[in-house]
Amino acid sequence: MSYIISTAYLAVLISAVFVILRWGNVRCCGQTPVGTFTFVALLFTAGLDMGLVMLPLTEFPAYAADEAYRFTNPLAIEFGMWGPLVWMMYFLSAFYFVVLEPRLQIFEIPIVKWVYNLTVIATCAFTCYLFLTALPSYIGDVSATTLWAIVVCVIAISVYSSGNINFMKWLAVSSTWMFVALAIVAVLAASYYYSAAGLGGLASNLGLLSDYFANLHHFVSPITAYHEFYLFWWFSWSIMIGQFVSMFVGGLRTWRLAGAMILLPSIPLAVWFAVLYIYFEQQITIPAWLNWFMVTVGIVFVVNSLDSLIRLYGLNLGWTKTRLGSTYYPLHFFLQLGLVMAYQFTPFKIEWVGVVVIGLYAAVYALMLRRRALVRAAVMEARGPAGNALPAGSPS
After folding, report:
1. What is the mean pLDDT of residues 12-29?
2. N or C terminus: which one in the chain shows less Cβ crowding within 10 Å?
């Protein structure tokens, strides 16, 4: 499995660099173009979940204790698990769906279409299932009834949001600002109330992140089994998140799209991890009020992730609000709720989805080679005056 993920990851990263260098001036425009800030907010909130907010505090000690990670500091390791190389996969798939898929139509081939959308449905429900299983560790001992009530509400809001694009965009932007507010409150509390670290402590931690770039080569293949799990997880998400955000690309040149998708999301990640690292270094226990603030933001992030995937497979399979009417909401709600309940009795692993997605990548590469004339035509069309190559599918 390590050989498979290493080869696939390296191939995707090389492809992303090739696209930036070879087709950097191609104009990319999706079906529902939005401003850059809204676009990055949709990407940031759809591509991440509650783990971003809560996990680092439990992972820093593990990275510090594990010999395999001793080549750098725990903060750089954490950033490497979520950082720029991961977002390069999202960029590559977004570029494909904006520029190439309208001509190639690979994801309209029945077998590809159904395998792909089944992985989207499975990953969507599995994300909600992980949220269900992890929630007690974030909010303490609560009854099963309370846990399921929260999960049902999350699914219901996600389904509603998936059918209302304006609400989805509003939620993405709002949750981004909530995350910014959380980071500001957390750093001020850590720097001046719970310790004397000051803002100099944050600046010092940000400096530690330079070690990530100095050790970039370590992150292109699995460092440990845990890192391998992360890579399979990101691969599972890479095509679906890329396709989702491709709908909202607002006429950016390829190199600007790369900056918006690789660099801009990495900045708030770096700041947030540096803030949490103060709590780790100073051995500050997260106070209850801050924990609930973190949990609230994390739950909204889960909604953002789920609504994007529900909308995506709904568009791909024609299960849209426009087509289904009032049936749209119960269909998606009970489908996701049923799968979340089923996951309690199955040995499902995200690595399986990752392997399937790697297979989809291989199929796309092979078919692009066979249809290289269409690839050239798609790029030439996107380079034209209109520059309005559109991703496949249509919004409801």
Report:
1. 96
2. N
| Position 168 pLDDT exceeds 90 | yes
pLDDT value at residue 391 = 42
Beta strands 250-253 and 27-29: pairing type? antiparallel
Q: What is the pLDDT of residues 331-342, one digit of tens each?
A: 999 999 999 998
Q: Look at residue 385 in the predicted model and tell me its pLDDT.
A: 59
Predicted pLDDT of residue 382: 87
CA distance 84 to 87: 5
Instruction: Indicate whether 347 pLDDT > 90.
Output: no
Classify domain 2-383 at the CATH topology level: Hydantoin permease (1.10.4160)
